[in-house]
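Homework help board

Subject: predicted structure for assignment chain

Our instructor gave us this sequence and asked us to write out the predicted structure in token form, then describe one feature. I got the tokens but I'm not sure how to describe them. Can anyone check?
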Amino acid sequence: MKNDTRARKLRAKLSSGLFQQVTVTFLFLLGLSSSPFGQTAESVPLSLHPDNPHYFLFRGKPAVLITSGEHYGALLNLDFDYRTYLATLHSDGLNATRIFSGAYAEPQGAFRIERNTLAPAPGRLIAPWARSDTPGYAGGGPKFDLQQWNPEYFERLHDLMEEASRLGIVVELVLFCPFYREEQWALSPMNASNNINGIGAVERTEVYTVEGNEALLAVQKAMVRKIVEELNGYDNLYYEICNEPYFGGVTREWQQEIVRTIASTEQNLKFRHLISENVANAGEIDLMRGSGKVWSLLHPEVDILNFHYSNPPLVVALNYYLNRVIGENETGFKGTGDEYYRREAWEFILAGGALFNHLDYSFAVGFEDGTFEYPDTQPGGGSANLRRQFAILKRFIESFEFVRMRPDNTVIRDGIPREGRAHVLADAGRAYAAYIRGDAEELNLKVVLPAGSYRVEWLDPLSGETQDAGTVRLGAAPASLSAPFYHGEIALRILRSAEQ
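My token output:
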């Protein structure tokens, strides 16, 4: 345990880009690490799959990221036990989490969230910047010094990243977040009232701009460079520029400046990490129809297009041609039950998405094992049962060579329930994955595939139970496939049989 602590402290001091090779060799010679940050010598960070950039490549294997994570405070909230939290995600069969950097925090009660992990108790926010000796931070404790880094923060960050790496969990690190209301801006270390540097004496809607905001922009870019340098050695990481930048006055020019800062910093480092742009809430999807103007300013260094509340998953079809990973990294506002979010996940992934993060309110301080029984007023759901159902989806999609597959909604010609929906991923003539939902007493699908023999298997998304329908002969004429059970949703696996 002492060796682990010594290694973390050494990494926190020495893992910046210019000293990374020295750090690796030094730790190895001391016997504190067999490889940097838990990696093998051959490993590279999470990347877009070279054969199909709609999916990831992680540790040498095709990957999708499916999870049900806490409300982004695992790093910045000193009272949150991220080790128990990460172990819970791992044991539930999930492989990702989303965390905020500490430049943004919320007051208790924001958005009607009970026991909000983004709302640390007084004095319990940890940020990249050191505390000064001057009292007066609005969230309790001394003010921040935006010219000094906080070594305890980076030690905590490294420890979280190492634990996630050990468990095979990918971390989405969100660098910034807009200030929706004055009470959130009042808690930011970047607010001039909360730092000793006199930086950030601006309106909350002017925090993320390029012109007329040089001192604050310099602080933001320095924070980005510092985090990127510290974390360059980790393979289980990607960066999101800003959460929901379509609120709070975040400008396109500022976002692109942050992208350039990430990219230029990593030019001098060993690895390049993926960058995500949070594009829109579902209510804004219609703005992208036809003209494509939203994408005319897409930065070429952006690899992942993340959306919020995307059901039905129109964003996948609208943007598939861009050859990037399309994700949904926040859900909610559809009640506290499991059904809606389970169906949302299945539809998004079977439409061709590769990343799904359910916002799970059963995680809280003192309930890092995901057992908090939240009130009905919570703006979303989450439960151990739902996490197990997300894992069923993850195992289902991983049972295919999914990098060979593309969305193909011509396979099912008829039989979809009235006002229902179906999504199909296809490797034409070889493999088909389908998800069907909608109200009906029974399900009888008419399908058309290239002529041949196929093994057919039905799966219950709630329980994971499967029923093998045997080998059937399918061809150019529509053939009937009748589900043995159907309770509003079902998944279907069709694989070419060796018996021809």
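Reply (TA_rk): Your tokens look well-formed. For the description, you could write something like this. The longest strand covers residues 466-474. That's the kind of observation they're looking for.
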